[in-house]
Write a structure and sequence with these properties.
Layout: H1 3-11, H2 17-42, H3 59-81, H4 86-105, H5 114-129, H6 133-152, H7 159-165, H8 171-185, H9 190-200, H10 211-226, H11 233-242, H12 246-253, H13 255-273
Helix pairs in contact: 1-9, 1-10, 2-10, 2-13, 3-4, 4-5, 6-9, 8-9, 8-10, 8-13, 9-10
């Protein structure tokens, strides 16, 4: 349901989400375990108290997980029922889920809460959307720039480069992942790099480099770029919300996590390709 999935699937119409799942689900699990391990080893540990401390109820967390499961299920149901591609189903299902949740919270006000939800939406939506206008413009322009680059770069002109990368085979997926991460550090938005590479790499005659492997590696590179580069839109939004410098978040808090994830994910993609 993320923008990376939308970019990859829209650029490769023959590719489905289920084709990416074996690669990205495994990579996501590795990222999660690595993050948990680093936080457990290096994070602050509370001092043990002698007196008994009441354990909070897990009910709110369970309700929240149920809500997330309902949103994702609705998106997949719309994709199957209406025969929509997953990015389009997410664009339909996510707003419907948000409005449904607003109405459910206001159901006691009558008419299943729909009028009250509409009033709340009209009152709060401009306030919520206005601060991220610049980020939306940057993402849209970056995506257009990536597609424009694919159209302007003829495949024939990549002959000298092809003689170097073709023998690497599936390892080119790892190089593409690292390229997305590296260029993000100097200000090239991941949407530009991913759109450009996902349009060029599958068209090159490289043995062992499947579109699914390429798309998955680019999506993982995008994720690593978002949590490390201090000048991506998501990091700037996070910095504004927390009051912490984006450079501090990306390079001080997440540096060890990034450096630990890269070799682990490199091994994962090479193993998956093999």
């Amino acid at each position: 349901m993320g923008i990376g999935v939308a970019v990859v699937l829209s650029s490769l119409p023959e590719l489905r989400w289920i084709d990416l799942a074996p690669y990205v689900v495994g990579a996501a699990l590795l990222i999660f375990l690595m993050g948990w391990g680093i936080d457990h080893l290096t994070g602050p540990h509370p001092v043990a108290r002698s007196e008994a401390v009441a354990v909070p109820s897990p009910a709110p967390l369970g309700a929240f997980c149920l809500l997330l499961f309902g949103i994702v299920s609705l998106v997949f149901l719309l994709s199957w029922w209406l025969e929509l591609r997953l990015p389009i189903a997410a664009l339909v299902g996510a707003p419907l889920s948000a409005f449904g949740w607003l109405a459910w919270q206001r159901r006691r006000l009558g008419l299943l809460g729909v009028p009250a939800a509409l009033a709340s939406l009209r009152r709060q939506l401009p306030w919520l959307v206005a601060p991220i206008g610049n980020e939306v413009v940057v993402l849209g322009a970056a995506g257009y720039l990536g597609h424009l680059g694919v159209a302007l770069v003829p495949v024939e002109s990549l002959g000298p480069l092809l003689t170097f990368i073709a023998p690497l085979g599936a390892a080119n997926a790892v190089l593409a992942m690292l390229l997305v991460v590296g260029l993000a550090q100097v200000g090239v938005n991941p949407i530009v790099t991913v759109t450009l590479l996902v349009g060029l790499l599958p068209s090159l005659p490289i043995e062992g480099l499947s579109p699914a492997l390429t798309g998955a590696a680019l999506m993982v590179g995008w994720a690593l770029a978002l949590m490390s580069s201090p000048i991506t839109a998501s990091m700037l939004i996070l910095s504004r919300f927390t009051g912490v410098s984006s450079r501090h978040i990306g390079y001080r808090w997440n540096a060890r996590f990034l450096l630990a994830c890269i070799p682990l994910l490199t091994g994962w993609f090479l193993l998956a390709a093999w």
